[in-house]
Amino acid sequence: MKRTGIKALCAAASTLLGLLALTVVPPAAAATLTEVTGFGANPSNLRMHLYVPDRVAPKPAVLLAVHYCGGSGTAFHSGTEFARLADQYGFAVIYPTVTRDSKCFDVSSPQALRRDGGSDPVGLMSMVNYVLQRHNGDSSRVFVTGASSGAMMTNVMLANYPDVFNAGAAFAGVPAGCFATTNGSEWNSECANGTLLRTPQQWGDIARSAYPGYTGKRPRVQLWHGTQDDILRYPNFGEEIDQWTNVHGLPTTPTSTDSPQANWTRTRYSDKVEAISLQGTGHSLPAGGMALRAIQFFGLDTGQPPTTTTTTPPPGSSTCAVGYAVNPWNTGLTAQITIANTGSTAIDGWTLDFALPGGQRITNGWGATYAPDSGTVTARNVDYTARIAAGSSVQIGLQATHNGNPGAATSFRLNGTTCTATP
C-alpha cells in the first residue's frame, strides 16, 4: 500500500469537515443519528448510521452520504449540512463508516469495480435496500454524494448501480475506475497526480464495464473540484467530465457556462452533467452552501425528482424573448441581439447561450463577452448591460465571419431558461 498517499488523504480530512457546510448547527428537531446493524450483506464490515427526520416524507427519498479518508459516518453527519437539509425537505440520510485501518473506501480492487463484485459497494447497497424496505423509501429517488474518498466512491456507485441511483454529487474525486489496482494497494499515484489521462470513450467504457450489458437510464452527475487540489489533482476533474458526458452520449463542449458565485465556474452538459470548478481552492474545499446546491441538483428541495428532458415552453410561457437581426455580406455579418425580460421580476446578471450556425466564427462583440467563438456560444453581460428590468430589454451585438451560411443563431437560453425567439 502507498502509505504516503493514504496519509496525505487522511491529513486533508480534518479540513474537509467544512466542505459542504455553511454554518452547521444542530437540527432543531428531536431526530437523532442511529446506528443500524444486521442490514444485509456486508463483506467489508462497514458500519451504518441512519438519520431519519421527525417530519419525514410519506415515501422519502434516500441519500447515501459517503465520508472522506480518515473520517467516519458520524463525523460526516456532524460536519455537513445534509441532516439539517433532511429536516427541511423530509428525506433520509445514510452515513456509512469504513472500519479498515486507512478509513478509506475501497475504490481500487477488482471486486469493488464491478456490480455485486464484493467489498464496500455491496455493503453500501445493502444499506440503501434496508432503508427502502424498512422506511418505505422511494426507489425512484435514491442519490449518492461524498467527499474525497467518498467522492471516488460516489462515481463507483454510479457506475456499478446506474439502475439504483437517480443522481450523484462528487466533491473532489476521480473518475470511476481511475484508482484501479491489482496488487491489493488502496492507492494509485498516477491517478491521484492527475497523469492518468484517457479519451472520453475510454473513460466511458470503464464506467460501462462495471455493469456489462446494461442499456437503461444513466444517473445525472454533479462534479466539484478545486484548481489547486494537491491530493487528487485538478486534471481529474476534466477526466470525470469526459467520463460522464461520454456515458450520457454527450459532447464535451458545455451547453452553458456561468459563475454561481465568485471564483466558481459552472459548466453544464445538457441536463445530465454539471461541473463546478473552484478557482484557487485546494483539496479542502471552502464552505458556501455546496450541500444545498447538491440537494437542489438532485431535486430534493422540491420533494419531486427533477426533469430529465429539455423541453421548449409553449408560446407565452417563457420569461424571456430574444430577437436576432442579421446584416450579412459576402464573407461576414453583424448581428444585433435584443434580450427582453418578459417576466415580472428584474434580472441582475445574466448569461445567454445560443447555437451559432456552422461555419460562423465571432471576431468581436459589444455589450457582452462571448466564448467560445463558434458552436454553442455563451454571451455574458458586462457592467452596463447586467440589469434587465421587468418588461424591459437590452441590446448587444457581434461581428462574425461565415463560409456561405449567414443565418441567424438559434436555441436561446437566458440563465438556463429557454427563451422565445422573436423576429
TrEMBL record:
Residues 313-422 form the CBM2 domain. GO terms for molecular function: hydrolase activity, hydrolyzing O-glycosyl compounds; polysaccharide binding. PROSITE patterns: CBM2. Residues 1-30 form the signal peptide. Pfam families: CBM_2, Esterase_PHB. InterPro entries: AB_hydrolase_fold (IPR029058), CBD2 (IPR001919), CBM2/CBM3_carb-bd_dom_sf (IPR008965), CBM2_carb-bd_dom_sf (IPR012291), Esterase_phb (IPR010126), Plant_Biomass_Hydrol_Est (IPR050955). It comes from the Bacteria. Keywords: Hydrolase, Signal. GO terms for biological process: carbohydrate metabolic process. This is PHB depolymerase family esterase.
